[in-house]
UniProtKB/TrEMBL annotation:
Gene Ontology annotations for the cellular component aspect, listed alphabetically: cytosol
Keywords: Hydrolase, Metal-binding
InterPro entries: DNase_TatD-rel_CS, Metal_Hydrolase, TatD-like
UniProt binding sites for a divalent metal cation 1: 8, 10, 99, 215
Binding locations of a divalent metal cation 2: 141, 165
Protein name (record): TatD family deoxyribonuclease
Family stated for the protein in its record: Belongs to the metallo-dependent hydrolases superfamily. TatD-type hydrolase family.
Length: 266
């Protein structure tokens, strides 16, 4: 029987956390056996860390700590120091740092675009340095920021790589990330026919480079627009991916799970 890992799900967000055990029971029934839970900043670090002890389920939850570029307003000057201490304290239960990254859209929409972008890059690069020090992979958010993200990753020279969350780029962009030792998070984007560029890219990529994700409760799949996303839909992402590929479903599923195991040392 096939089994699945959602490599990116915000289980602590209200849409999911208020019925956490029901969510996980549904996942269990769909053979979604593992969920990676990134955090977004100091405001939810403790909540994400406590999720595995709150869940009455056999679904394994893996917390990650990071600072998302959407949540930099009001960030304390010592936030990176706080993060460093928390990583050291919880090293045994952390499999990655994130969600972190650079978002060109929110920088452009801010009152001071250049300043905002520079702040994002600084916080991102400081977290990459922590990942390097603690020898952990990273989960990277990117939107209209491919050149900046690649530049920062090249400079960081990470030994443990990570995941490019919600990959939606070209084959050339994908190749740059693969060359840096990263896996690509494939989510609901490929269920939208209009996402031709991403679909064509995903068809050509080596299966050793792919992981599945939902980004629940965000990024609903085609047909579910306007609804909160759910980690059970990682199975639907898999079905969409399988329809684009020539591999047998069992081989595809096993390889994707092996990719997760390899990256996170599970």
């Amino acid at each position: 029987m096939l089994s699945f890992t959602d490599s990116h799900c915000h289980l602590d967000f209200d849409e999911l956390s208020q019925s956490l055990n029901d969510v996980l029971t549904t996942c269990e029934a769909q053979q979604v056996k593992r969920i990676v839970v990134p955090s977004v900043g100091p405001q939810n670090w403790q909540q994400v860390l406590s999720l595995p002890t709150q869940a009455a389920s056999s679904v394994k939850l893996y917390p990650c700590l990071g600072i998302h570029p959407w949540f930099l307003d009001g960030l304390a000057d010592d936030a990176i120091e706080q993060l460093d201490k928390l990583i050291a304290e919880h090293k045994a239960s952390l499999i990655a740092l994130g969600e972190m990254g650079i978002d060109g859209t929110i920088a452009k929409d801010s009152k001071a675009p250049t300043q905002h972008l520079n702040q994002q890059i600084t916080i991102f690069e400081q977290q990459l340095e922590l990942a390097k020090q603690h020898q952990l992979p990273v989960i990277v958010h990117h939107r209209r920021s491919h050149p900046e993200v690649v530049r920062s990753l090249k400079a960081a020279k990470l030994s443990h790589g990570g995941i490019i969350h919600a990959f939606s780029g070209s084959y050339q962009q994908a190749k740059q990330y693969l060359d840096l030792g990263f896996l690509l998070g494939i989510g609901g984007t490929i269920t939208y026919p209009r996402a031709a560029k991403t679909i064509n890219t995903v068809k050509k990529l080596p299966i050793e480079s792919l992981v599945l994700e939902t980004d629940a409760p965000a990024m609903p799949l085609a047909g579910f627009q306007g609804q909160a996303n759910h980690p059970k839909h990682v199975v639907d992402v898999f079905e969409a991916l399988a329809s684009l590929r020539s591999e047998d479903k069992e081989i595809l599923s096993e390889q994707i799970e092996a990719n997760i195991n390899r990256l996170f040392n599970l």
